[in-house]
Amino acid sequence: MKVKKMITVAVAVTFLVTLFVGCSTNEPAQEQKEEQKEQTGLEEGSKEPIVISTTGEHAFFSETNEETGELQGFEIDVWTEIGKRLDREIRWETAGFPGIIRIRAG
Q1: CA angle, 19 as apex, 15 and 21 as ends, to 5°?
Q2: Which residues partner with 62 through β-bridges?
Q3: Across the chain, where does the E strand assignment appear?
Q4: Burial, 40: exposed, middle or buried (Cβ in 10 Å; 0-12, 13-18, 19+)?
Q5: What residues have CB less than 8 Å from 60, skipping those under 6 apart?
Q6: Beta pairing, strands 57-58 & 50-54
Q7: Is there a contact between 78 and 57 (Cβ–Cβ < 8 Å)?
Q8: Where would I find the H helices in 24-55?
Q9: Phi, psi dihedral angles at 93 (to 5 degrees)
Q10: How many CB atoms are located within 10 Å of the residue 30 CB?
Q11: How many C-beta atoms lie closer than 10 Å to residue 78's C-beta?
Q12: Could you give the C-alpha distances from 35 to 21, 26, 43, 75, 89, in angstroms and in order?
């Protein structure tokens, strides 16, 4: 019975060690910051505006208010809140769906 218990404990410990080693990161913080800069093109703490493209034609998601001409809806509210939390300006570009693909393609 003791041998069975020892084997069970050994397997459990091996599993936990493998789990923690596999989920850890060995990259120093500086390398992570450089990788983030490469991916986003922005440095940490950058104040460049975040540019969001939308059609402004999807009801309740991102639509143009007929009276004011401003964008409104869930997507607009979410990105506005993200901008506030990151202390960044959100700049909106409206275009039809094919236009968004051209903007994204560069």
Answers
A1: 120
A2: 58
A3: 50-54, 57-58, 62-64, 71-72, 90-94
A4: exposed
A5: 73, 74
A6: unpaired
A7: no
A8: 29-40
A9: -120, 125
A10: 8
A11: 13
A12: 22, 14, 10, 28, 23
Q: Token pair 């104040």 is at which residue?
A: 47
What is the C-alpha to C-alpha distance for residues 59 and 38, in angstroms, rounded to an integer?
36
Has this prediction a pTM greater than 0.90?
no
Q: Report pLDDT digits (tens) over 56-85.
A: 777 878 888 889 888 888 988 998 898 898
Q: Are 64 and 56 in contact (CB under 8 A)?
A: yes
Element (H or E) spanning 93, and its range?
Answer: strand 90-94
Residues 89 and 50: beta-carbon distance below 8 Å: yes
Q: How far apart are alpha carbons 26 and 16 in whole angstroms? A: 18
Please give the structure tokens belonging to residue 92.
């909106």
Give yes or no for residue 100 having a pLDDT over 60.
no
Of all helices (H) and strands (E), which one includes residue 98? helix 97-105
